[in-house]
Amino acid sequence: MEILAFVNQKGGVAKTTSVLNAGAALAIEGKRILLVDIDPQGSLSKCAGFRNIDKEPTTYEVIKGSADINDAIRTKNGVAPYDILPTDIRMSGAEIELISVPGRDTLLKEALENIKTPYDYILIDCSPSLNILTLMALTAATGVIIPIAAQYMPLDGMAQLLPTIDIVKKRLNKRLKVAGVIITMYDSRRSLDKEIIKAVKAKFPEETYKTIVRNNSKIAEAPTFGKDIFEYDPKSTGAEAYKEIAQEIIKKGVENG
Ligand SMILES: Nc1ncnc2c1ncn2[C@@H]1O[C@H](COP(=O)(O)OP(=O)(O)OP(=O)(O)O)[C@@H](O)[C@H]1O
Ligand SMILES: [Mg+2]
Fold first, then answer.
1. What pTM did the predictor assign?
2. 3-class DSSP state for residue 84?
3. Residue 257 has pLDDT above 70, yes or no
């Protein structure tokens, strides 16, 4: 089983979009998938159609130990079904509440170890911050996937992210590695985008996926309907791109044993 944390402390670079659509694509490839939302914004849960969940247990109760993870996991019936551990705004209290909890870094890892259903991939959607919740995700993960938006010079942000990954690797999680880099929101009309692709590939020659996700209005529209791109418009360039990304994720995992 691979546990992949989608991390970039820059906001709006398609972390949530990539978790949802790569997850849906992996499910279509026949993989057993769980998507975990740990972002207090709850965007992944909303994008997948889980709104108004205030009566349901979420990642927040699971981390605090007041709910069993197996009771909080829900199934999303997309083109192929996949599971989601949703969250909502309650999670915003977690950071402060957990400050004095010993061993808090491993709370998510321990919760995932209690899951009774077998999964091939667990994808974790992180908030745009290197906070305690993101540290928990990095501690639970076998790999990090970094989504990078082609329109911003992204490598400045890496100056914080990569050392954080190294620290977690040294202290909390020896198996952690950068498993992949997804370049998203590419617009071929912008010359800066091409420069950014070059720079990202130079920095992450092995890790950068060959498939580049272009700007695609269908990808931005689908969440309004609580749908992933395969439910909303399977013929779109966005659906095609995330299908290829899923295949690359599978292939890389096999290559790296
Ligand atoms: N390939 C794409 N084409 C067009 N729009 C996109 C694409 N990918 C993502 N978007 C849109 O860009 C916005 C930001 O995406 P998303 O919410 O996935 O980013 P994020 O990194 O999760 O943001 P945050 O840091 O706030 O969690 C969303 O409105 C999303 O629909
Ligand atoms: Mg997000």
1. 0.97
2. strand
3. no
